[in-house]
Amino acid sequence: MGKTAIVLGATGLTGRNLLEKLLNDSDYSRIVLFSRSTCGIVDSKITEYLIDVFELDQYKSLFRADVVFCCIGTTQSKTPDKTIYHKIDYGIPVAAANLCAKNNINRFICISALGANSKSKVFYNRTKGEMEAVVLSLNLKYTYLLQPSLITGSRNEFRFGEAIGKVLMDVLSPLFIGKFKKYKPIPSKTIVSAMLWLADHSYALQCIPSENIKEIAKEYDRNRA
């Protein structure tokens, strides 16, 4: 019997790439999705619950897995209302981590962001930092919070700000050396490889910056080659 994975955010860029990888991974026999809209994929491995994800804590009995991947995230341009933004980027990951604690799921892998800091004056960074602090306080045995820089890849939606940011980052990328190396854009597929490696291994850091994500991904890709 293979493992069961829960994926939150399977309709987004990284979540979608993760789902595709899991479907082709023989180690996983069941993939459980909680989402407000369908992923659009019909597969015997997938069990999909279309719910109000703001009410995730109401689905404790269905929240059973070996590992939980949280790829939930929005942007300030897409969600300008700070209350809703906080409910997405803070509320959903915290609810998922709490369900892990209640249901004895000891492996929680969540995408945060570079610059996450609960003391930051920047709302986005502060929200991510506050989320990290609460998740870590639950003391799940294997908690990993990935802190990528700008995530690149082919999205189903167009985000003007990110498109401009990517162009600028590509132009400036050769300048990102030394202490600035962590700001280089990172492909979503690289993040997925790192998440899958972390699903099977322990790692020294719980909050994992972009450069470390890339190194972990290389290890996963070497082992799967």
Automatic annotation (TrEMBL):
Q: Where is the NAD(P)-binding domain?
A: 9-161
Classification via Gene3D superfamilies: NAD(P)-binding Rossmann-like Domain (3.40.50.720)
Signal peptide range: none
Protein name as annotated: Uncharacterized protein YbjT (DUF2867 family)
SUPFAM superfamilies attached to this UniProt entry: NAD(P)-binding Rossmann-fold domains
Highest taxon above the source species = Bacteria
- Parts of the chain that traverse the membrane: none
